[in-house]
Amino acid sequence: MTRKKPPEDESDEDDVEKKERVIHTRVPESLENQLRVRAEELGVSVSNLVRNVLNRTFGLVDGVVADSQAVAKAARGTVKRAPPPAPSLDDVLGWQPLVLGKNAVCSRCNALLPKGSDAATGVSEAGDTRFVICTDCVAQLRA
After folding, report:
1. CA angle (27, 29, 33) in 5-degree steps
2. Who contacts 26 (Cβ-Cβ below 8 Å, separation ≥6)?
3. DSSP annotation string for 12-67
């Protein structure tokens, strides 16, 4: 028989998970300068910029690893049919303006978009993937 934890124990675990950790790293002076300039341009702290870049990078790496595994399986002949292609910006039916509720990255030009900035969201024809783009990219699409 398993016992369910009292609600106060569950919230304690959530609080521990929400606490941020600090990671120290050494970087060349030129990289530090680039980070400071870019963070100032975006109106975010260097810490938030680095956090966003790391989060985005892990997402990209996960995608590359998954794609590599699929390629390896296909090469070995263990895949019977190809998975459907991932939606792309070409699949977007339309763009809707929005104010970002959290930091994002432009799906078109990879610009970092800070929380509270204007952007646009698009829905693919498949309807299951959303894209976010910056206002500069929206203007380019209109041209």
Report:
1. 105
2. none
3. HHHHHHHS---------HHHHHHHHHHHHHHTS-HHHHHHHHHHHHHHHHHHHHHH
Q: H/E element holding 73?
A: helix 46-76
Q: How confident is the model at residue 112 (pLDDT cuts 50, 70, 90)?
A: very high
Dihedral of CA 98/99/101/104: which sign?
A: positive
The closest alpha carbon to 43, from 98, 107, 118, belongs to: 118
**Where do the domains of the chain lie?**
19-76, 89-142
List Cβ neighbours of 79 (8 Å cut-off, separation of 6 or more).
70, 73
% of residues, the chain, pLDDT over 90: 24
Distance CA 122, CA 98 (A): 10
User: CATH assignment of 19-76?
Assistant: 1.10.1220
Q: Are 94 and 123 in contact (CB under 8 A)?
A: yes
Q: Is 132 helix (H, G, I), strand (E, B) or coil?
A: strand
